[in-house]
Model the fold of this input.
Amino acid sequence: MRRRTGTDGSLLASLPWTLAALAFSVLPHIQFLPFWVTAIFLSCSGWRWMVERKRWRLPPAWFRIVLAMVCFIGVLVSYESVSGVGPGSALLAVMAALKLLETRQRRDQFVLLFISIFLIMASLLREQFLWSLPYLIAGVLFTMTAWLRMSDARKVPIGISVRTGARLVMYAAPLMIAMWIFFPRIATPFWAVPIDSSASSGLSDRMSPGDISSLSQSNAVAFRVKFRDTMPPPHKRYWRGLVLNRFNGRTWTGSEPTFSRDRRKDIEFEGDPVDYQVTLEPTRQQWIFALDIPYDADLDRTFMDSGHQLARMQPVDQRIVYNATSYPDFRMSNNLNEFWRNRFTDLPADTNQRTTRLAREMRDEAGSNETFINNVLRMFNREEFYYTLEPPLLGGNPVDEFLFNTRRGFCEHFASSFAVMMRAAGIPSRIVLGYQGGEVNPMGEYLTVRQADAHAWTEVWLRGRGWYRVDPTAAVAPERIEMGRYGAMLDGIGESWGLTAPSQWAYQVEMAWDAMNAKWNEWILAYGPENQHRFMRWLGMDEPDWRQMMLTLIAISVALITNVSLHLKLRYRPPRKDEAARLYRKFISASGVELHEGESPLAYSSRLGVEKADISVAATNITCLYLDARYGPPDPAGIPELRIAVSGFPGGR
Amino acid sequence: MSSATWQFPEGLRFSSFRHWARARILRWARKRQGRDSRITRLVSRRIYILPTAVGLVFVLMTFTMLLGSMNYNNNLSFVLTFLLVSLGFVSMHQCQRNLVGLEVAFAGVEPVFAGQSAEFRIAITNHSKTRRPHLQLYVEGTKSRIDDLEPGESRVLHLEIATSRRGILSLPRFGIRTLFPFELFRAWAWLHMDLDALVYPKPADDVSEPPPTQSAHGHRQHDARGEEDFAGLRRYHAGDSPRHVAWKAFARSGDLLSKQFSGADTSSQWFDFDQVTGPDVERRLSVLARWIVDADRTQQDYDLRMPGQEFKPAHGERHRHRCLEALATFRMDKPTQSGATT
Done:
């Protein structure tokens, strides 16, 4: 029979810290991990700890193999893939749990600490907030302290480990900052694995009024804008996103962004341009938001699609910063040929019949397209239509139901039914998705546009006038457009829409927090190739390229490492030679009585007592301290006490 | 790194090339550093440093993380990656500094019998104001325990080296190394103090015949463990066995006294190399060693005659050592004490 023995308890000093470091790294993943992964991780950690404390046996190999296979299949089933941050972090957590069950020796914990670092990395790839930086530094400190404890031969007080870890991180910090600033950033990714395809945020590329829409409730930031000169008034803050031109009776859809020749030729720009800088949160989509209508954006591999929307070759996976120029006043005078006119008036024949009939009647009554458009808007304004963010759900003919029954809805409902009526009357129309408004942050003089500011409006095409914007929501709830969602909320008007105003205190805190986030995003998180070039030019590099940056980085690194080396050298220098003798000599010269050749300290002290009675007490004291410090048993307080006594010595007269 | 040299990584152990390279490097280091005094302060130019296996994994990990950060242009994971890279650089310097300024001193080695381990005692002293953790002495095949040194502290570490033959065990070189702080790097220094340990012949276990006695009296009345007849105390002389020191009396009065046993000096044994029969020299030395050890245990006087060398009858630690030393360093052709047989 095979003899099985329990653990020897040799990991008792290091294991708790390894477990704590692991748990700290898993913490930000917990809300994303399937429940069972967290459960397995926690129970294995607890189990392993009990094994060490109670000297139990570790589970047998077959058990670990079965558990490993079950967990791997579990991850595959939960995520249907093994790439990306989600399944990656789940696999790391499971690996840590399994490795714990076979951690026998001190050195096995290396693997656990490597996993811990990868888990921190994974959490950063998933999301980056203001607290992510302190979190990652704390995580590194935690891991490195655990690392130190693991490699300690003797049981060392935890204070020493923490201090050593913190000291080394402090030494490393300046070098890290230099590397971070000067390491050349590249624009092209090596591979295009989406970080987390499920976590797409922001506008979706389709619109189904009547279905549940959670976007309007999300307070998450979509992007922030800093204007160079003046901010356009709220009713001109239409942030153009993507264009939807197909309707199947229920859902509006757009098309994939396609590169086409310079679409700017179609637009007549009027009035003064507006220059601004946008910090866009990652959308994992290709659309780039700009003030209607964009003229230019200094972002690489970005183009204007046929719907005059800005799009990028690859999804926006990280925060990006770009400067853009727009003309709030414009005319799009492109000629729409027969084919496109048909596309933009296309409606499914068998749905929303009542709406179609109503639109045709109204068009016949109106006589002209312009009058018809105004009549429809007046209908929205005069009749019993309500703007609300909590509309009832709609059934099979959503436009009919909305126009004739429920009459409650928000921008999507109004834009959709308006566009359907236009199409029914033969006027080319399309839906534009984007954002409208945004709140001005008084602390940073910038505009924050949130997901809740998402908006849908309509563009119609009239001969001789081209495409132009008609926002039916403005006819129903002009405050939404004039004051913006946030303004209406603060004002109290928003209460009828389902928005409650925050308290003044909460408002202040929110604004301050948002301002900090804005700076953080702009300076730290969005530091990509564009920002790096800007910063390098500001530093004085004429044509910054990666060679120059690398050379600068190497030079700075060498200087910083030398500095660390000197610091360490000072730390390890021996204490000053015979400090006690030096202090004693100082005492003799201060007393003003010469020391005879071969005279012992005690003899000198008693002679001093005779010659200078006034200082005899202090002199005896100093002599005793000196003898203790120099010849007595080692005492760390000896020298400092002597130093204090000598510096307080009155001196002879 | 300026003082670092390229050493064939220790993990690869599959070819004689490694041995060859190692021998060359060791020769080179010896030539470069010269002979060390018995008290040596380590200076930075003699400290070597290389990454460990864990260090190489660490490099691989940070490289992977760098690729990931670059791919996603994720600035916080750049922070994490660069923090770890910087920690790697810092730990390299920290590792080397953990040895610089350390004082290494030879603190003696006791003679042992062949087959026992010789314990070289090496004192390491931390003269600096900073703690020096994770220090270890090593030679090929053995290493001491790992120890930490507080500021100003001095500790003795033991290098136990197995012996198999009598003679002089020389320790031309030993190393001191550290893995502090993260075991990413190993810094070490070689010390060439040319230490020697004396290895007595292993006392023969199977000596059935009693040692020949040349004394007329005393042998019979005293059996092998005849220490029962306590005769009194006298002042301790150097060479008295510590087992005979009256420790209780020492604790009371502070004077070192030795217990005297009756009959211990009444008989004397004569051990003569030429009289011992045996298949070879080593066997005969081994038998002599057994007799000396046994005689010493009974506090009997004994003498030893070796070719060209003679020790007058006496007893005690000092006498025992001189006799055993003569056995350890004995050479058939050249009957003097010089020359190592190992």
